[in-house]
Amino acid sequence: MDGYFGSYVLVAALLAIGVAIVAGALFANRLLRPSRPTPDKLTTYECGVDPVGEGWAQSQVRYYVFTYLYVVFAVDAVFLFPWATVFDAPGYGLTTLVEMFVFLGFITLGIVYAWRKRVLTWT
């Protein structure tokens, strides 16, 4: 199996072995499992609540607002880690410090705006 296509043959063989193992496990599971369907087992189950009524439900906007705020803070945290490593590099100290304070200023303005609009209250 030397040459250019030898490594592709090895990868294909390992892929075939992996697929065979997974297919064998699924087939063995199908053979060994008990199958006793009842009407209760065949009903739709959602978080312990019986499925009654329509499938449409209205959700409040505040959940989405908190999700967006989480994303903003997650992006802030993702930006802080590379900044901390670059801040230590020689020649980038003051530049990265100013950039970080500008970035934190934008984040602060967003939080103050959300606070003033009473978005952060949970009532």
Automatic annotation (TrEMBL):
Protein's membrane topology: Multi-pass membrane protein
Gene Ontology cellular component list: NADH dehydrogenase complex; plasma membrane
Compartment annotation: Cell membrane; Membrane
Keywords, comma-separated and alphabetical: Membrane, NAD, Quinone, Transmembrane, Transmembrane helix, Transport
Enzyme type, top EC level: translocase
GO molecular function: NADH dehydrogenase (ubiquinone) activity; quinone binding
Key word Transmembrane present: yes
Residues spanning the membrane: 6-28, 63-86, 92-115
The keyword Transmembrane is assigned to this record: yes
InterPro entries: NADH_UbQ/plastoQ_OxRdtase_su3 (IPR000440), NDAH_ubi_oxred_su3_sf (IPR038430)
PANTHER family linked: NADH-UBIQUINONE OXIDOREDUCTASE CHAIN 3
Purpose: NDH-1 shuttles electrons from NADH, via FMN and iron-sulfur (Fe-S) centers, to quinones in the respiratory chain.
Protein name: NADH-quinone oxidoreductase subunit
Organism in which the protein naturally occurs: Nonomuraea diastatica
